[in-house]
Specification:
By secondary structure, the protein is an all-beta fold. It has strands spanning about 25, 30-35, 40, 50-55.
């Protein structure tokens, strides 16, 4: 993802060491990549199936993520 792709869907692809493929967990619960984009739940819609997109940081709740343990029992 580059600045030209704000609002673009997050997809999987083969690694190429680009800064757009390196993601970091920030202290404010956002997940950003090396180009400064953050993951964003599109349209602030929290219904199942809503797309996750890359967007410039706005500070909304739709940009905050947490990791929770998964118990398969």
């Amino acid at each position: 993802m580059s600045a030209a792709n704000f609002g673009g869907a997050v997809i999987t692809c083969s690694p190429n060491e680009g800064s757009h493929q390196k993601w970091y967990f920030d202290d404010d619960f956002t997940i950003r990549n090396g180009t400064g984009m953050v993951l964003n739940v599109e349209g602030n819609n929290f219904q199942q199936g809503t797309r996750i997109v890359g967007f410039r940081k706005q500070g909304g709740q739709n940009e905050k993520f947490r990791i929770e343990p998964f118990n398969n029992n």
